[in-house]
Amino acid sequence: MVDLRVRTSDEERRAGRAATERFRAGQREWRQRINRPALAVTGAMVLASVVPALVLGQMWGYALGVYGGAFIGLYFWLRDDPPEYVARWEWGADAERATARALRGLVRAGWFAVHDVPCRLGNMDHVVIGPAGVFVLETKWLGGDATVENDEIRVQRRLDPDSNYVTGGVGRRTRSRAVDLGSALAQQSGRRPWVTAVVVIDSRFADGVVDGDRITFVRRDLLADWLAARPQRLAPGEVDQLAAAMRTLVDRADAGDAKRRASKPSVVGETAPFILGVPATPAGPTSR
């Protein structure tokens, strides 16, 4: 039998894939918008530096050449510095990759982990299967101090209180993904596992761990220890069975996602109508 957990050790490169694609698409759009005006301004300033240098002599040429180089540098800075709402996708991707790295120890200990799985509500950032059960992890980079209230995250920014905000539906979406994954695994493996919904917070989170309504919020640096401390739900054979089923579902989801992208290559971030080939089901007691 192929050890799927060995293959899992190479899965980290999947982490943050969807968010990175969204960032690159936004960056391309930004560059298209900024290129013409930025090039026009930079070209004019460089020209304004070169002409006086030719007229006034070598010393002026050195000084004005520095200014011209500065303007060229400014152009490339503007080109590669998209608005925050675009950059946040890359920050989110970095956070997902950090979560994948945080799971390395568990993977080496025999857990199964896969990242960035296409699903009905965009993608599942991480799916983890081990002796403690099946977990759907949603990683959130928040850019402030986090607290949890009614299964939502309140983010406070000390230096800019006007930019404080509350997440919209993160608990509900993560629970829904957990239920959908339970349905998909039930159809693929013949047994319906309990799927635990987890939001991984990649920001300052003084509480560390907060239990909500069938969902848990965990600070990233505490994640591996928190998972390892969960009570055992699955025997080793059951872990292997569910890992094999998950691998089949991921391969199927990737194939469907690739087909959809090929038919609509210009659509970025389009969500699949079904999770892993299984119609969505309403939230119920199969998730926590």
Strand % is 15-25%
Radius of gyration: 24 Å
User: Stretches where pLDDT falls below 50 for ≥5 residues?
Assistant: 1-9, 265-275, 277-288
Q: In percent, how helical is the residue content? A: 40-55%
The overall strand count is 8
Biggest sheet descriptor: 8 strands, mixed
Question: In whole angstroms, how far apart are the ends?
Answer: 31 Å
Name the structural class: alpha+beta
Total domain count:
2
- Total DSSP helices: 8
Write the element-wise H/E pattern from the N-terminal end onward: HHHHHEEEEEHEEEHH
Mean pLDDT across the residues is 77
Key terms for this structure?
single chain, 288 residues, alpha+beta, 2 domains, 8 helices, 20% strand, disordered N terminus, disordered C terminus
Describe what you observe in this structure.
There is one protein chain. The chain is α+β, with helices and mostly antiparallel strands. It has two domains: 4-17 and 84-263, no CATH class; 25-79. 50% of the residues lie in helices and 20% in strands. The protein has helices spanning 4-8, 17-56, 58-79, 84-102, 104-108, 170-189, 223-228, 236-263, and strands at residues 112-119, 122-130, 133-149, 152-156, 165-166, 195-204, 209-211, 216-219. Strands 1, 2, 3, 4, 5, 6, 7 and 8 form an eight-stranded mixed beta sheet that branches. Strand 2 and strand 3 (133-149) form a beta hairpin. It is globular and about 80 Å long. Residues 1-9, 265-275 and 277-288 have low confidence and may be disordered.
Task: Please sum up the structure shown.
By secondary structure, this protein is α+β, with helices and mostly antiparallel strands. It has eight helices and eight strands, in the order H-H-H-H-H-E-E-E-E-E-H-E-E-E-H-H. Helices cover 50% and strands 20% of the residues.
